[in-house]
From TrEMBL:
Transmembrane segments: 39-60, 72-96, 156-175, 204-222, 269-291, 297-318
Chief location of this protein within or outside the cell: membrane
InterPro entries per UniProt: GPCR_Rhodpsn, GPCR_Rhodpsn_7TM, TAAR
Single GO cellular component term: plasma membrane
Domain G-protein coupled receptors family 1 profile: 51-317
Gene3D superfamilies: Rhodopsin 7-helix transmembrane proteins
Keywords from the named record: Cell membrane, G-protein coupled receptor, Membrane, Receptor, Transducer, Transmembrane, Transmembrane helix
Protein name: G-protein coupled receptors family 1 profile domain-containing protein
Example GO molecular function: G protein-coupled receptor activity
DNA-binding in keyword set: no
PROSITE patterns: G_PROTEIN_RECEP_F1_2
Localization in the cell: Cell membrane
Length: 365
């Protein structure tokens, strides 16, 4: 199916604007670069599925890791796993069929049935990171409201809103309403908006999470450079003077523990946001410049950059958070190390020792 030049810079769907600007279609049949991309991407998909499912199992096994932002992190890893294990492998097979003349793609409507999942989970990845950014913003600027935001009903409500906004963008093309998914000459799928409303939904789902991540990063850097407060309010002084030394010590230990955990989480998420922005911002720059529309093969590079992000994010979580490291060590020790067998006890020595103790008592008596 040929794509005409009805895609504009307003149709900002990362990695999907693949038609040529002049209406011509470039053939990629037997292209060695595409074949190399297929094998390399398949390998990284397997690694990404392994890293994400490993950290996800650790989070599901230990309730401590599900506290705070743990629910958003688990949702992010589920979306990563869906893309690495299902969506991208289907895209690789589709591209292989389109670029292999002897096989060819028999179903021209394959994008309608397959790409809806890719678009949905790819957008949910961005929204999950956006919710993590909101989590950090609330923790920094509204610390008194942070326990309320960390409640499970509030987090579930936020996830439901993200799902609703995402499905409002990705489902209409399935029924060719408001937008359509079209197949390109290289096998990728393009989002073609039919109305201004679908374009607005697409832009909102694309830019809002990135804006939240960028704002959270700036806020974290700004807060880190602020001097620590060295005074107390009258209310805080009265509250501190009314507690016992024992309570003060317990509160201090708890506050230090929570502060260290929040610091580790902030540093971990800051690195994750930086990686996400590094992998996604070039896509939007290329789309605004119209380069992706003229060269659809660059879409494969953008997909590979996203795949590197999905594969590396669980490694960042494990590397930069001691809670994850400790639970991962316990998790692997339970799986791969055999159960320690207690050494056999020599009953004759035990009986002999018991008799000697009994004889000694009788001699003393």
């Amino acid at each position: 199916m040929n794509l005409t030049n009805n895609l504009t810079a307003h149709d900002l769907d990362p990695g999907q604007l693949v038609s040529s600007l002049n209406g011509t279609v470039k053939s990629f049949a037997g292209d060695r670069g595409v074949i190399a991309w297929e094998y390399l991407t398949s390998l990284v998909c397997a690694v990404g599925a392994l890293t994400n499912i490993t950290i996800l199992l650790i989070i599901l096994r230990y309730p401590l890791l599900r506290k705070g932002a743990g629910l958003f992190i688990a949702h992010l890893l589920v979306c990563h796993l869906a893309i690495c294990a299902v969506c991208l492998p289907l895209a690789i097979l589709r591209i292989a069929k389109v670029t292999t003349p002897s096989i060819g793609l028999q179903d021209p409507l394959v994008c309608r049935h397959q790409h809806v999942f890719h678009a949905t989970f790819n957008t949910l990845v961005n929204w999950s990171e956006g919710l993590l950014a909101v989590n950090r913003l609330v923790a920094i600027f509204l610390p008194l409201k942070f326990p309320l935001f960390n409640r499970r009903p509030v987090q579930c409500a936020c996830l439901c809103v993200c799902w609703a906004v995402t499905l409002a963008y990705s489902l209409p093309p399935l029924y060719e309403d408001l937008a359509v998914y079209k197949l390109s000459s290289i096998g990728t799928c393009a989002f073609v908006a039919k109305s201004a409303f679908s374009t607005a939904l697409l832009s909102f789902n694309a830019y809002c999470p990135l804006f939240l991540m960028a704002m959270a990063g700036v806020a974290i850097v700004y807060r880190a450079n602020l001097p620590r407060r060295r005074f107390q309010t009258t209310e805080e002084s009265n509250r501190v003077s009314s507690i016992t030394p024992r309570q003060a010590k317990d509160n201090l230990v708890q506050l230090n523990s929570n502060a260290k955990r929040q610091k580790r989480t902030t540093r971990m998420l800051m690195t994750s946001f930086a990686l996400s922005l590094f992998c996604q911002v070039p896509q939007y720059i290329s789309l605004l410049a119209g380069y992706s529309a003229a060269h659809p093969e660059i879409v494969l590079c953008f997909w590979f950059m996203q795949l590197i992000q999905f594969t590396s994010t669980p490694v960042i979580f494990l590397k930069m958070n001691k809670d994850y490291q400790h639970k991962a060590a316990v998790f692997y020790s339970c799986i791969f190390r055999p159960t320690q067998v207690r050494p056999r006890v020599n009953l004759s020595l035990v009986l002999r020792a018991g008799r000697s103790v009994k004889d000694a008592r009788e001699n003393t008596d």
